[in-house]
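Known limitations

Files may contain more than one protein. Parsers should not assume a single record per file. Below, a two-record file is shown to illustrate correct handling: read the sequence, read the token line, then continue until end of file.
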Amino acid sequence: MKWLKIHRYLLFTTCGLLLISSCTLKRAEIRYEDRSGVGIVQHGVASWYGKKFHGNPTASGEIYDMYQLTAAHKTLPLDTYAMVTNLENNRSVEVKINDRGPFVKGRIIDLSYAAARSIDMVEKGTARVKVVVLKRRSLIVRSESKGFGRGFTVQVGAFSDKGNAVKLSNALGREIRDVYISVFETPETRYYRVRIGHFNTRERAYRMAAQLADMGYSVLVAPR
């Protein structure tokens, strides 16, 4: 009889802990999945920030530019690159984490205006997203352009649909030289990243980024 009481107590305690855990998960709307060789996959709500912070220093020391593809995250290391997918329309954008935030409960990432516009969430203000942390050493990367190596490149778009990447690449190729597509693969998705140039210094990459920004593109300066 005593053993039966102890067994029931342990059963109720375990169920209670599981219930509390599931309720906490539902409230936070965040889920982490540890995927070997790829990094962290995080699900939750994204928001964006713009003019109010434009021109101010970020946590990384960089100046916040609302027209660059960047984001703020509470815990990811600064200078991490992540793929953010709007789960409501399946649009994706690759961003650089250079700031801390968001500081609103229940939100997992704050996108720059340009990044939010890329995945069509500016008007709504928030969106359910998936954040995939990119670990460069563990990625399978191929390039359709020769000379792949160290340095920097300027990224203009990232797509899960190769056709969209090819269309953008062709459009850019009519105006700019050295446009190429790099393929980034995870166990779940293959992304086609439209990139321009192979720059030995960050300054040269930024000059190209400024030219593209003047043409109306949202860009990301990234390691090659």
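...continuing to the second record:
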Amino acid sequence: MPSSYAALYYHLIWSTKERQPIILPEWEERLYAYIGGILRTEKNKLLLAGGTADHIHLLCSLGREQSIRDVVRTIKTNSSKWIRDSLLANFRWQDGYGAFSVSHTALPSAERYIRNQKAHHRKKTYEEEMREVFKMCAIEFDDRFFA
């Protein structure tokens, strides 16, 4: 094949520093639009964003030449600077993140999951959600992370 092609979809999740509930409804859509711009600049695509006051979920299509680590670092660095400069001076993201591959056929399911975050979190905490995701993906984790 003379050219290279890829269809790489990821569900990215991370929270605010110390899971502070500081992503306000009045500016969360602006945040997601800004993150979409960051991804476009890096030749990636934001398919959908959602979350709650203390964490975000991003469904992205990423290029074949970029690492997840670099993409997440770019999003977090640039978006936190934008938030601090224009909305909330003390804003910070947590250090870590979750990155989960999504098959093309599972995109509708991932989209439903992200769209329903606010309703989902009326019943479950971020910690409960992440435990379930880790177990579903067979990821070993240290339960002290959730203490």
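Parsers that stop after the first record will miss the second one. For reference, the second record is described as follows. The chain has one domain: 8-146.
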